[in-house]
Structures are given as C-alpha cells and as structure tokens.
Amino acid sequence: MMKYTEAFIKEMPKSDLHLHLDGSLRIPTLIEMAKKSHIKMPSYTEEGLRELVFKKSYQNLGEYLHGFQYTCAALRDLENIERASYELAIDNQKENVSYIEVRFAPQLMMDTEKGLTMETVMEAAYKGFERAKKEYNNSPEVISGEKPEFNYGIISCAMRKFGPKGYSPYYTNFFKMMEFSKEMEVIKEAALQMVKASVKIRDEKNIPIVSIDLAGQEDGYPPGKFKDIYAYAHKNFMHKTVHAGEAYGAESIFQAITECYADRIGHGYYLFDENKISDTNVTDRKKYLSELISFVADKRTTIEVCLTSNLQTNPEIKSIEDHNFKHMLANRMSVTICTDNRLVSDTTVSKEFQLAVDNFDISLKHLKDVVAYGFKKSFYHGQYIEKRNWAKKVMMHFDKVAKKHGLLE
C-alpha cells in the first residue's frame, strides 16, 4: 500500500464539496458570538465545549446534532454569518483547499424582525466568502502562478423535517399551518419557497448559489417526496445534490437520481447494503444493488464521502476499515473526500484525505482521480469552459506537488 506523508496531503490542492457552514465554525468565534448574542451554552470555554458538545466521538446521530442548536442560534445575525463564512474560507485556504461548496439552510437563520431575510442571509455569506477569495487570489503566490486560484459556491439546503425547538422565527407560520394541514405539504411548501428564492437571488444578485440540497431526517422523508421541488430547480439550470443513503437504504439513492435529477449524492453510505432495502417491490436485492451501483458508477454521479462523520454517527461502522468507501473505490466510482462538519467532527480536508490513504489501498493515479473529481464534478459558478481550464490548472499543480514530494518522476 502506497504511503503518503502529511506534508504532501496538506500541500496538494483539494476541494470540499460537502461542507456545512453551521457545523464548521471556529470554537473561539462561536463563544464570542454566543456572548454577544446572549446565547445560553453549557460552557463558554473551548475545553468545556470540547468535553460537553463537540466531542471526538458521539453515541448516536442525535448527540452529534446536539451542537447545531448553538451554532444555528449564533448565525441568526448578519455580521456573524459574514464572519463565519470569511473564517471558513480562510481556514480552508491555509490547508491548500482550492475550492469549497458551503451548504446551509437559509430558512433556519431567517428572522424578518431582525432583518434576516433569505436575501440578506445569502448576501452576508457571499460577502464573507467573496472577501476571503479576493484577498487570497490577490496574494503574490496566486498572481505568480505558484498556487491555483481559490473559488467557492453556496448550496441552499431544504429541510426534510422541522420542529419548533431551536428553529428560526421564520417557521412560526409553518407551525401554525401544521395545525390544519398535512405535515408533508407544509414541509414541501417551505422547500419550494427556498428553491424559488435561491434561483431568484442567483439570477438577480449574481450570488453564486450553485445548487440545492435536501438535508435532515432521511428515514420517512425520502427524496421522491421532494421531486417537484427538484424539478423546479432542474428547469432553472440549478445543480442538485441530495443527502441520500446516509441513514436510509439504497432506494433513497435510487429516488435521488431518478426522481430528483441528482448530480451528486451526499454520503451514499448504504448503496451497498442489502439489509437496508425496505421497498417491498424489490424482490431480488442483490440484482437491484448490482444494477444501481453500476448505473451510479457509469453515470459518474459523484458521491460526497465523509469518513469521520460517518464513523461518528453510524454505530454499525465499527472501524474505518469497515467503511463502504472500500466498495466505492473497488467499483471505480466517482467519489470526492469531504469533511461534512469541520467543528462537529473535529476534522479538516487534510485529515480526511489522510484517513483515506492510510486505511485504503489508493495508488497515486487513483488518488489523483479522486482529487480531480472534486474539481471536475464541482458546481463551479461560471461557464463550463472556464471551469474546465481552471480544473486543468489545479491538476497541473497536483502533479507539481507530487513531483516535489518524490511521488512522480
């Protein structure tokens, strides 16, 4: 098995296509924001929050998600959104991440009484990312061509399910609607409003909202229920990714690609698990999975792999060697390494790549393919020819770094 040094992994160009803003704040920044906004937290020290909230490991998904109530509360402030976006871009630039797509549910941050509308929330995030981008791309290293340019995109998340506790004041009217409407109809209406607003802001403000996503409780809320929302995005030239196969069976992935036009799949872990299939119409599970795996691989539908996050939230994965990433590699699927949540999972893109190469047999050529997918399958904001030329430059830099570290002749 080929060995890769930490120095090489850190220096090589990388991307992060599955990155939640509200799960990736700096702890010192969160503490400052909480104090300023009078948010009650179990501790106001980094040590305390690491012990009580943002841990190395979690008992279950519920415990993993517990910390989001604090980060989401902190981000219901336009200055805080801009700051968190700026710092997240900076943190990625420091480890040579050349491209990020940051996702969040803007409706969770909205509070019209405080001026937090869909538009102002998106503008605040845009200001933070754009400022970091311009600073980095005007640095001597980038101008001289020593390092590739930094770029980013924003992904708007629709929520599969929401409840009163910890949610934005925006949802007050939706809670009232639930008293006399079917829950799914209300959730879909909120999702449709989000997607329509995302398309409008992208087109009118030229803010790089590059995709929509569907996040939240997967079991009971499969992608197919949101096919009309995704059809609207599809018809408005909006890219599409879906959290699928994270906590539900392969049929969730099937619905994402056949009913929601998904370009990429978030997690996709259970693509290989026969026991997770619950669709009674599937009589031959082995054949169903074989055909689905081949179809996803052949269509180059990219899977956004989040190793540490899966280990922390899925008790069925006893060790990294048990992760289905090995099957993704064996089937030569289009995969990209992502962090999911830098704070909640206490990770970085470099750590995730190191975890992959230290535990799976990945040749340099295969590693280069995985890195390339992160750029080629990105939802780059711009014309295809621009994206193609940019990705080519990034991969030329990969070769240069590999040669520097003695991995290429």
SSE map:
Blueprint: H1 6-11, E1 14-20, H2 27-37, H3 46-52, H4 61-65, H5 68-74, H6 78-93, E2 97-104, H7 118-137, H8 140-143, E3 151-159, H9 172-178, H10 183-205, E4 209-215, H11 227-235, E5 239-244, H12 250-258, E6 264-267, H13 285-298, E7 302-305, H14 307-313, H15 325-330, E8 335-337, H16 349-359, H17 364-376, H18 384-404
Parallel strand pairs: 1-2, 2-3, 3-4, 4-5, 5-6, 6-7, 7-8
How would you describe this structure in keywords?
18 helices; TIM Barrel; 409 residues; globular
Q: What is the makeup of the main sheet?
A: 8 strands, parallel
User: For the record, what CATH class applies?
Assistant: Alpha Beta
What's the CATH H-level homologous superfamily?
Metal-dependent hydrolases
Q: What is the overall number of helices?
A: 18
Characterize the structure shown.
The model has no long low-confidence stretch (mean pLDDT 93). The longest helix has 23 residues, at 183-205. Helix 13 links the parallel strand 6 and strand 7. The chain has helices spanning 6-11, 27-37, 46-52, 61-65, 68-74, 78-93, 118-137, 140-143, 172-178, 183-205, 227-235, 250-258, 285-298, 307-313, 325-330, 349-359, 364-376, 384-404, and strands at 14-20, 97-104, 151-159, 209-215, 239-244, 264-267, 302-305, 335-337. By secondary structure, the protein is an alpha/beta fold. It has an eight-stranded parallel beta sheet. It has 18 helices and eight strands. Helix 2 crosses helix 5 and helix 17 runs antiparallel to helix 18. It has a single domain, classed as TIM Barrel. The chain is globular, with a radius of gyration of 20 Å.
